[in-house]
């Protein structure tokens, strides 16, 4: 994060740094399955390919859980860092890691218990069942390791170490690649050999990923942070889109597997060939999907950070660049599928296989029909991840849900009923086209919101010929420990007007004739009411003079002094005792007991001082009162600016 400034570095450089390792990481997840399928296809044949296809929904479930927690935590980390909330960021990351471990173990146990039923649900034929059971049992042993390292890879990338994430994923993939031919061909272990090669690679990746937990750059994680807290819910919420995306893919996979076996049985191909081919085509498509998602997820820290930092111009620049790159990838992949699909299909089956001709024929048809306009998916996948990065989980989920559930599954069922096996292939083109049109409207809506928000930010922050952006004087009374002074400084900065706080001491001294040191001493002791009224009279004249021009005035009964001024907005800021104590500990370096004593004493003195000179209850004579810690300093300032604009 120190080497790559997400708020200032060139967008293309950032995207290159984050996306290339992310693409490789995503591709490696595909490699684990596709390498198994290639070697099993060559060594075992059609049945072996079909078995890996039947088990693939379990892999999707693991990726869904990892994405729910990992991608959500990564998005939350970027947003919190952009907002400058490092403490929240560290707690959310640590809680997410704990949840990741718990979820990984639960998924593996449930999978082992329900495997026979799941295999039937996932579309297995009688010929494939035994191979699927063998392959699935072993794959589930590695499921906890896969879920943890996959989830951690997203968090590690967002922490500013995409190369580290790429490294441990590559190591596992290389081990899998080396062991597959040894176990399948030399030891003749068949589908079991492919599964063992996979989980050995996953365990190595897991070990290297765990070693990173002490190396976080952007946050400092303490042991106490690893307990599950409500903060983890924010991360899970932001990862919900990733989870639903994967689960909708799984639902589609299950439906298509069952359609392949059902309608394949009444075709020239039989049940096993379409089931096997669909698995191959899906794995080929996963390479394209991995590239697009890799670019999009790699852009997530850039978009999330700049959105949190209110730098929307960089958000839009990143978004445009991501869309251009992803559409280019999609068009190239689509052309390859149309021009030379047989080259890709031949990777997964031996020419000596008795089913070779039918396998190749149906594989080419799937490539050219089923994935006929798959380049349009680039837009849907990009928008889903980007909208998630902006914190809009509902729309992101809708984007993910549209293609698979709302369009693809109903269309494939209906068209299969009309056209038989090939109806499922026609459904691919129809769903991709309609989904593209729907997502265009959703994306347009979100982009317009970015433009509107950017205009508001520019209006609130830009200087207009050196003139202030308001004609009002804003007085701020505040409880000690509520952050009122910082709110005042930030508000004055955004409105391009001066702020007067401690500067008034010198002006009071000059006006009253008292020595500045004396005025400062009694100011610190909060005992104005014990002294002559000369000082308060001087204070009154100073504030009345300052109020001739727009400004922010903090404390000193300024709301009462300017009560007859029509251009005054009176603000009172407070927070809960616990929040004030935490602020005292964090910013004033007090221990908890002392912070509580100082807060209570100071607020008691402020109340007494105010009521002594005004005769009015402290906290009652204001236009607007806000709890700072309930919504945060930034949002308090936004609320005040909106209030001023409405005035």
Number of individual domains: 2
Mean pLDDT: 85
The DSSP helix count reads 23
Q: What is the helix/strand order?
A: HHHHHHHHHHHHHHEHEHHHEHEHHEHH
Radius of gyration, whole Å: 31 Å
Largest sheet report: 5 strands, parallel
Range of strand content: under 5%
Looking at the structure, what is the overall shape? Answer: elongated
| Helix vs. strand class | mainly alpha
Low-pLDDT sequence parts:
526-531
What percent of residues adopt helix (DSSP H or I)? Answer: over 70%
Question: How far is the first residue's CA from the last residue's CA?
Answer: 41 Å
- For the largest beta sheet, what order do the strands appear in spatially? 2-3-1-4-5
**Number of DSSP strands?**
5
- Oligomer description: single chain
Report what the structure shows.
The protein has 647 residues and is mostly helical. It folds into 2 domains: 11-459, no CATH class; 473-646, P-loop containing nucleotide triphosphate hydrolases (Rossmann fold), CATH 3.40.50. It has helices at 11-43, 46-82, 86-121, 126-158, 162-186, 191-210, 231-264, 272-308, 312-339, 341-345, 356-370, 377-389, 393-419, 421-461, 484-495, 503-512, 516-525, 533-546, 558-561, 577-587, 592-614, 628-631, 633-646; strands spanning 473-478, 499-500, 551-554, 568-574, 624-627. Strands 2-3-1-4-5 form a 5-stranded parallel β-sheet. It is elongated. Residues 526-531 have low confidence and may be disordered.
